[in-house]
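User: Batch of two.

Assistant: Item 1 of 2:
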Amino acid sequence: MSSDQRFVIVGGGLAAAKIAEALRDKDFDGSVTLIGAEEQLPYERPPLSKEHLLGKKALSEFTAAPAQWYRDHHVEVRLGTTVTGLDTAAKTVTLPDGSTVPYDKLALATGSTPRTLPIPGADAPNVYTLRTIEDSDTLIELFGSARRIVIIGAGWIGLEVAAAARAAGVQVTIVETADLPLLAALGPEMGEVFADLHRSHGVDFRFGAQVSEITTKDAIATALADGVRLGDGSTIEADAVLVAVGARPNIELAADAGLAVDGGVLVDEHLATSDPNIVAVGDIATQQHPVLGSRIRVEHWANALNQPAVAAATMLGKPATYDRLPYFFTDQYDLGMEYTGYAAPGGYGRVVVRGDPAAREFVAFWLDSDNRILAGMNVNVWDVSDRIKELILAGEPVDPDRLADVTAPL
């Protein structure tokens, strides 16, 4: 491809950095400009609720690439800059000062924004969300001073923050509208495992509960949150509140430009959008998945890590398909877990467990009505994720009893 080609990447996370890296790895010698809204160089987000929050890993250890790499590979990086407009006809993106940056090919990696709650008290200064390194650092400081916190939401972020807070000796109450944690992600069978895990570490759950208000008290300068009021009128006192009720994909730029969107930016198996000059990756990409046979949007690290190589190839006009199965992981207390595949909420027939859930050392499999494996989750059992992937991709019915038998090799 001609060296006068101009490729622009909008986004400042891991996916954006990996697209720049992939373009140079694929010998693209045109200009590459990365425009990120954060002031930091692109970094990985999982440590924000895991190792960094536990004080085990510094930002430099999960920054995607050092500043020297961008200089050495002639990638222009514009940090602290939010792209405000996209003109697909003129092939330009607009910056806050009104200037424009032209592109021949464009990659959108704009990520997500934490959802907030439209309730009284939600804007108090000690009501937090977790998305950035600054958010994580703020929570670390909070753990050093707070005695008790309320976490609204029992998803991955809520549970991981709860584990870090308990490690710091902070009392934690989690309020969740569903009847179990991770119900949409894992279903009731495995939701129970995580409920038991956190209860064993002193977390107080309030399931089936709605938060009607974040209560506040007058401070010198402003009103500070001092707890939450539930729909039944009861209150829970707290020194701070974390809202962890999911994230909203940042698709406004794409939607306003007329790209096809439906809960995310629609992309094909090559990660191309409805505009052939634009690709989309990571949290915002709702992909037609060639293996799953349906559209899926995955808000997990593995997509940000692995999709960029395919997106870069597509930008370069080279054949490439993103066909990796969804994958995510978590670490909470002494539980480490990997999940491979996809079992839609209510879209599976049964869960088969191989091992001992009480000891938190097992593999769980989600099977469809024909006993074909849709997904697998290994908990404190390692070096089996490749075999789980093979079983899913085989698409063959299995014997559930044999699958559960730890003496039968996977």
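Item 2 of 2:
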Amino acid sequence: MLSTAPFVNNSASSVTTDTISVVVPIYNEVESLPHLITAIADVMQANNYIYEIVCVDDGSRDGSTALLQKLAEERDDLRAIVLRRNYGQTPAMAAGFENAAGEVVISLDADLQNDPADIPNLLIKMDEGYDLVSGWRKDRQDNKWTRLIPSKIANLLIGRVTKVTLHDYGCSLKAYRSELLADINLYGELHRFIPALASIEGARIAEIPVRHHARQFGNSKYGLDRTFRVLLDLLTVWFIRKFLTRPMHAFGYLGLLMMSLGTMLGLYLSSLKVFLGQSIGDRPLLVLVAILFLAGLQLFGFGLLGELLMRTYHESQGRPIYRIRSIFGTSKYFKQDP
């Protein structure tokens, strides 16, 4: 269960004066929503924070959309962003981040497993000069075999690959500076790699233990297929971190190696033909020469162009990875666009 009393920050030196946006991606969480929004508001009001709650409905089909619209019309601290269909957690979080008005953005899940009472602790840590503070579910209330062990392996692997060591990459409860989020573009399942992407931008990152509760309502949205998608995105993050500003170092080394090997084998075959008069047209080695040389050229060409075209498609044209159907509610705490 969530904390029965909201955390009250009594340290005057640590009380933030920043405006805060709490971003919550939602997919089929109609039973959890009223409890979650009340818990968030209680914590924010108890600490006298200037805040808004931004809920992003990612194509829910269980009545969450109608409930969000009703709550947004009744409350003056809630905005509900309804996406056209189910895009996934990363696009839903991107929609929330891009529509958040606060100087600090807090993200958390809608299933009541993250505790809003930990938000002040994140903000206190952020006041020490950090750009991103990540939660660590030190005492997780999940199934050991289906969630805990795979998560530990994933965290170890991600830390090794990205060189950003955290205990819990998968914890959605995080605090960000809004200017940091403005520099980060999310695709695929990259929301869990935000600390690694932030590190590329030179962010100062910290991690603190947070509470974790067993799921009270509904079912988990995570499946085995998500693991494979995360692994593929991990390769993307590794490439971005290592070769973003020098992509030819990735494709060039291997391409050069393959073309060099193909050239040497080609010279060998040519010497057999020219100096020894041997026939080389029926030799499999000739086919290998052609394959190595062409594959090397392709590594220089298609791979590099494909990566650059993908980034151009999403970034240069400003094309989003989601579409908003409607927005309900306004926040009395923030100036709204005309």
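The mean pLDDT is 80.
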